[in-house]
């Protein structure tokens, strides 16, 4: 297995991986708020890739026999003038997406991709890495905990009804 930077020739593999992730998220969403829109496959990868291109980001792919089995996308967003009012604003990288195809899990692909992104962030002067994890995704939470990450923020939700 090798880790490479994103190449356009792998766009369909990236689309498939992101769709696989979103379908998994839908399957574990107890609130039933997530969906896989009919245009998700076609558009989401392009949205994500555009975001990282505009935010000093990278996409790394894990290849096995010229087939993408995992990916990580991350960016280095800038703070705005108001962030400094209540935050020290250390340079940080954000992992936007990390997904490994089900067949390649448990073979350290996710760890290798995460390390590639962390090294990119380090080489670009980042002090921290931030990753948002869906609260119902216990597998991802456990993975990040094993990699030394910890929870800093919680998002709480309540359904309003009559």
Description:
α3 links the parallel β4 and β5. The model has no long low-confidence stretch (mean pLDDT 94). With 162 residues, this protein is α+β, with helices and mostly antiparallel strands. It has one domain: Aminopeptidase. The radius of gyration is 16 Å and the shape is globular. The protein has four helices and five strands.
Layout of helices and strands:
Elements: E1 2-5, H1 11-28, H2 40-54, E2 58-64, E3 67-75, E4 92-100, H3 109-123, E5 128-131, H4 138-146
Helix pairs in contact: 1-2
Instruction: State the helical fraction.
Output: 25-40%
Compute the CA-based radius of gyration: 16 Å
* Overall morphology: globular
CATH domain fold name: Aminopeptidase
| Unreliably modeled segments | none
In short:
The chain has helices at 11-28, 40-54, 109-123, 138-146; strands at residues 2-5, 58-64, 67-75, 92-100, 128-131. It is α+β, with helices and mostly antiparallel strands and 162 residues long. It has a single domain (2-146), classed as Aminopeptidase, CATH 3.40.630.
Descriptive tags:
Aminopeptidase; 162 residues; alpha+beta
């Amino acid at each position: 297995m090798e880790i490479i930077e994103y190449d356009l020739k792998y766009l369909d593999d990236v689309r498939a991986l992101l769709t696989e992730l979103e379908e998994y998220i839908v399957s574990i969403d107890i609130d039933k708020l997530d969906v896989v829109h009919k245009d998700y496959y076609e558009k989401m990868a392009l949205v994500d890739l555009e975001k990282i291109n505009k935010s000093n980001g990278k996409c790394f792919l894990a290849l096995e026999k010229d087939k993408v089995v995992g990916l990580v996308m991350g960016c280095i967003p800038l703070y705005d003038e108001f962030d400094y009012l209540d935050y020290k604003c250390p340079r940080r990288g954000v992992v936007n997406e990390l997904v490994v195809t089900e067949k390649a899990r448990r073979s350290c692909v996710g760890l290798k991709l995460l390390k590639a992104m962390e090294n990119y962030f380090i080489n670009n002067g980042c002090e921290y890495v931030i990753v948002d994890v869906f609260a119902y995704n216990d597998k991802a939470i456990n993975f990040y905990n094993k990699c030394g990450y910890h929870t800093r923020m919680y998002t709480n939700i309540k359904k309003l009804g009559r």
